[in-house]
């Protein structure tokens, strides 16, 4: 991991079905900008969320996805570490193919309650965010590239996975760690000294800490994520993506959520 970070924030709609994640991404990026004393590169222009099928959402998101891909490529070329704050997991359609190209030996820690491994044939919801990892691994063509080796992917904290999706994950060789299995020791065993790209969807947490659009019970706690981060050698981390903080939840004060994100992520910045 380089000594410098490139802070990139996604502000374009990428299949958002609510309005809170764009706001959450911007406010998290503002806090990280203050913490690291760097200016964020903003990609995309906000639009209102709506429920639509992946086939509609994907072409609409093209400009933002292309912008994110370019920002990550430029950061890596400049020998800085991309630190992305995105609205939805679908934003990774634009980043993971670049990771595969520039860091082919890196493992991907997909820290998420969901596998995001559906395809157009298996998706029940039509939600683009539930298909992103499968696209990056080449199971379907998003038009934005692929190249991630599924055997180098671990879904950490995964627990809300459709039956057909579970079969795809198993057949592809993706490692799925349940919350109980998602310990620093088990994650380090999987990493096995290799470079790491980290993706975090905050719905991996037990509901009530950091609001996310698709909450699932029996999740990890913030201190467990922090422990995983603290266990990873800083020099092994090639990039970080933080996604799906749903701002505006009346039950969880936004200030508290942003502070918790910053506190948790600082364990990667040690």
TrEMBL record:
Stated name of the protein: Arginase family protein
Pfam family, one: Arginase
Entry-linked PANTHER family: ARGINASE (PTHR43782)
Family: Belongs to the arginase family.
Signal sequence extent: none
Annotated organism of origin: Microbacterium algeriense
InterPro entries recorded: Ureohydrolase, Ureohydrolase_dom_sf
Source species, domain of life: Bacteria
Keywords noted in UniProt: Hydrolase, Manganese, Metal-binding
